[in-house]
Amino acid sequence: MKNYWDDETENSLYYQHYYFKSQPLTGASIMSESDTQTLSPSAAPAKHGRRTGARERRDPNAKPTGPAYIKRVIPTYDIMGEESLLKIEATADRILAEVGLDIRDDDETLAMFKKSGAKVDGMRVRFEPGHLREILKTAPKEFTQHARNPAHSVQIGGNNVVFAPSYGSPFVMDLDRGRRYGTLEDFQNFVKLTYNTPWLHHSGGTVCEPTDIPVNKRHLDMVYAHMRFSDKAYMGSITSQERAEDSIEMSRLLFGREFVDQNCVILGNVNVNSPLLWDGTITKSARAYARANQAAVIVPFILGGAMGPVTNAGAIAQAHAETMVGCAMTQLERPGAPVIYGNFLSSMSLRSGSPTFGTPEPAIGSMVVGQLARRLNLPLRCAGSFTTSKLPDGQAMQESVMSMLSAIHCGANFILHSAGFLDGLLSMSYEKFMMDADFCGALHSYIGGVSVDDNSLAMSAFQEVTPGGHYLGSSHTMANYTTAFYDSTISDDTPFESWTEAGESDSAKRANKRWKQSLADYAAPTMDPALDESIRDYMERKKASMPDQWY
Fold it and tell me: What is the pTM of this model?
């Protein structure tokens, strides 16, 4: 991985003279472990003020490091008052009681809900107000998803935030080869990039579709890639009950059967067929995860004007109803099984019918979704780095930042689609992945809030630096030098002249270099050879037991 500090190349004295126009800094010592370099005005190189001091100050072999997950310090942004929240909840209750919801091709789920007291008429199920909330009382408010490396286990729920890469794109994209169908090599690349990225805490799931592997067998290769090329927590398959059970069984081989029965080690992300339809393929997969005490992530996918109303409040009420049904289903299967309340609000162009992502209405709607999830005491998955842009450009980052900040402020605990999302989720972009991951790094500082203690109040610096003086060389600055500000690995903060001389590279080009360097630097985490062999043997036997299917 490229040195975390490599972008620090401009002499800080240049900024003192060129920007701040303050008094010259003389005799300021910048200390490294091996030497002391004294800076004076004459130390600034004449040609565009190349900065050397900061670079020598920092360890040239430093690697970026991040926490296993984030403990949020800033509060959630609760935008909606009690009266309005009660109206949305009441509308969700009316939808469930008066309209109902269909559960298709899953008689066992229908029977479970009927036994619990729901009204079942064919595949239509209706619930009285309060029925689902009572069932959901057994769901944990917070749980640990264990990684094979305990240092990478994540805590989901409460005040914790977990970033995971984008999920489900059939295409991949980079500046060199353009847009193309994803392959297993691409899948493995994104697992490796995620493993190398300290700002992504979770390996994710279907980071792209490996379309060169048969549909009925690719889940085995995907889960194995997460296990072998990373040691972070991961997700499994949900496209059939058998594939879900394969994912869980491979996890039992990795962690041990007894451990998996008592602990969450894998997530399954399941989508409602909005509006108001649960398909049996998905309900059976969700129940397979719950039955094994693993977490299902329950997610309605509502494009306003297509799978739900165009108005935000109505779409939120619909999503709330659909999600409660899915979460309750897991608790009927196994009370106390971990489950995540998910949401994917989006919009569409009412002129063309095309989906749109990263727009303001779903972003502000996510704030309300967060409030509703907390009222149910459930962990939340919501929003992500959404965009409809076809390139890793200004539109992509504008839309992604709006959507990602809504996830942060709504209180989302598990943020899927944190990196790589492009082309309305049709494409996983190598460059966008690196740009998003860098923004995730900045969000670590943002979520950390403002520390107030003796060091941060900096009274010693005020006492040391005289009025009109400069803080760059002060003891307080030196003590906090490497941690005071987030250091982006993608952004260019050099003067215009230096940027021009270096080739006028934009963010996408810089990201292109960084993903290639990250893959070149990748080293796989160790795995016991016997354990690896047992998992591969399971895969080979499963593949040999069925013919290839490409649809």
Answer: 0.89
